[in-house]
Amino acid sequence: MKTPKPSSKISKVKRPNPILYLLLGGLLKLFGYFKGHRIMIQNKITRPCIVLSNHTSFHDFIYTTNAVYPKRITYIAADKLLYQSGSKPFLKLARAIPKSLFETDLVAVRKAFDILKQNGIIGIFPEGQISAIGDTLPFNTAIAKLIKKAKVDVFVARHRNAYFVNPPWSKKTFKGRITTKVLRLLTVEEVNSKTIEEIHEVISLALHNESAKYCRERHMEVKKNDYANLENLIYQCPNCNHLGLENHKTHIHCPKCQFSFDGFENGMFGNIPLEEAFYHQRDLVEKEWNEYPDTVYQSPVFVESYQDNQLVLAGEGLLTMDQKGYYYRGTHFGKEVDLFFSAKSIPTLPSDIGRNVQIYEGKQLYQFAFKDHVYQAQQYVFRSEYLYRVLNQ
Known about the structure:
Blueprint: H1 18-35, E1 37-42, E2 49-53, H2 60-68, E3 74-78, H3 88-93, E4 97-99, H4 106-117, E5 121-124, H5 142-150, E6 153-160, H6 162-165, E7 178-186, H7 188-193, H8 196-207, H9 211-218, E8 246-247, E9 252-253, E10 260-261, E11 268-269, E12 272-273, H10 274-291, E13 297-307, E14 310-321, E15 325-332, E16 335-342, E17 351-352, E18 356-361, E19 364-370, H11 376-392
Parallel strand pairs: 1-7, 2-5, 2-6, 3-4, 3-5
Antiparallel strand pairs: 6-7, 8-9, 9-10, 11-12, 13-14, 13-19, 14-15, 15-16, 17-18, 18-19
Helix pairs in contact: 1-2, 5-8, 10-11
């Protein structure tokens, strides 16, 4: 068995099968409705076009599909999703275009233009990954460049409260209301007249989202459920800074000062805004590394990679992080390896909260799953973003 290599041949890309799309899309429409999804505004979508969406939950593909249904949409999706058994069948049916995360992928761009030439719709999540806290993530100007070259109308499907109904740190659903507005963002004429920087600014403003703040302002509450894994996102007590909160399903508390959290009441974590508790941790991580820049972080990990069109366990070893980047020393498909990844070219480490961090190189993925103290995944994300800024300032 060999590691997959990029192919020089670009297969012909097709839009989703119209009959299957109508049937399955109709079921998704019903599924979304009973989950509490409502479309508040829906501008008439003209084809060909690009639809942009914010990304705060695993169900955003469903909500965006519902928003444009019955028109067919072809998504550009992180290629990792086409290697995972849970998502692979659905994305195959949808004929999604796989793209390497945080890397230039000319094959994906070429396929996207092919769909537009077929008078189709391309769906893109510019942030590239789900926001851990529900706030809009920064994204580079590659999307604006693609739009400028495509010369088609651009729409935005903006989802609200999806973060609290289907949070990225949980597989549970927290019953509540999700709203979507579909608006024409740019006409072809506006795309032609604006610079890449101006297009990027328009997109940034349109997608801007602060989930917890919006929840408080609109009093959009959700019902209690099992909060398992939230303690690996908010892992540090916002009251006394103790590292390691304890989870008891619908109750999280600090074993040191007994600070407690019992439910999302208007986007709060206990008596503190959720996003404030999250960014407080980030500030502490950055302060620590700023004061002790020579600190080296090490963690025992399992590594998962692509093989035979699947994401599989590839080995185990030690993940190390210092001022230059990331080192993995251990096994990889039966061989002893010593790998280095420069932090200067990695703006962030994508992460499955409470489990892993990911590094993409070429067409291969190195997914490092922590053996213990799994809240380290979020700490590594904070460090990666800080280090990238320092090395590129």
